[in-house]
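quick one before i forget lol
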Amino acid sequence: MAEHAPPPARRALARVLAPVSVAEFFENAWERTPLLISRDDPGYFADLPSLAGVDEVITLGSCTAPGDGQLVKTLPDGATSRQPFPTTAGGRPDIHTIYRRYGDGHTVVVNRVHRSSPAVARLAHLLELDLRHPVGANLYLTPPGAQGFAPHVDTHDVFVLQLHGTKEWTVTDPADPDRLPLATSGRTAVELTDPVRLTLSAGDTLYLPRGVPHAAATASGSSLHLTVGVHVLRWIDLMAEALAVVAEADVAFRRSLGPAQLDVAAAPSERADQVGTPAAELAQRLAEAVHDPQLIERVVVRMSHRLLSGDRVWGGHFPALDAVAGLSDASVLTRPPGVPCQVRTTATEAILEFAGNHVSGPLLIEAALRQIAEQPVIVVGELPGELSPADRVDLAARLVGEGLLVPADPIARLGS
């Protein structure tokens, strides 16, 4: 079998879309129309969970919180039956009952599988870096001759990665970007009119924009697929963030509405004067504020910081911690693939932010931090800025100790 696990330098989105280019995808499909990518290569996603590994994902993962695991089945009358995973007396998923439900035609759904599968976690995280939007993933195992969910639309874009078997998808191409749903509208049942039928085989990718009506079912064999959901940050999110930033500096946005302004018994004309006019004035102040490059920079940094939050750790860092005592000017350090970071400054500090953590110091370390953020490999003694040799080693030791950098030798051993 060919090896399909991507090397660290390969962009995750390019892998999911190949042979379609990323540029072609954004020009022709993104938020517009479904896209089926057939590969005739069952092992293309061999590094992701397999049919034989679903049991371990369920029993050894974190499927204990409400909603982590579901059993779903479309009933003969078209209604959808949804049950949480049954649990044992110890609170763990009852795998034997899940086997029986699967045998009865229920689709086994592992929600948020990026929290329990390291391979899926890495893929989701790398896709976040490529797309600059939050990403999550669910795993779906459907028995032969079954359908999980009734026809519906989702409120987020998805990439369907077929891992095992085949599945028949029925979709309606809206061909209308105005159908993009609100993120709060929830899963909505729909009728499929003039549908297109698509067959996904192992190794294929299907992209569905949010708002596209769809359903999926198996025929004579079982199907395992990974749905990677892209929870896009929209213009409305940017404007809300900008409003929050403006309100921090302008007290007018923080003042309360008066009782008269919230009186629903008032005449509409009165309400327009009491609410509409002040709101229009505030909207004008917001419009003027967003022309400030510094404000927009703050907004974008705050939004992008969401991708750096959390506690993703890919493992293998303890050997690096053991190497801290031996660091010197000659030490070569590297940032593991898929670990993002960004630098921001205040009036007195330079701050390097990365997954769930940060390192800060006086402005004189800014140049060194920016090199670390921009280059995957650095030599301690070559860090720029007005730093003494001891300062450089101390900064490197902090970044290794806080989980961002590792000495090159431990990385080489881990990759061997």
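fyi The chain has three domains: 12-230, 235-305, 318-415.
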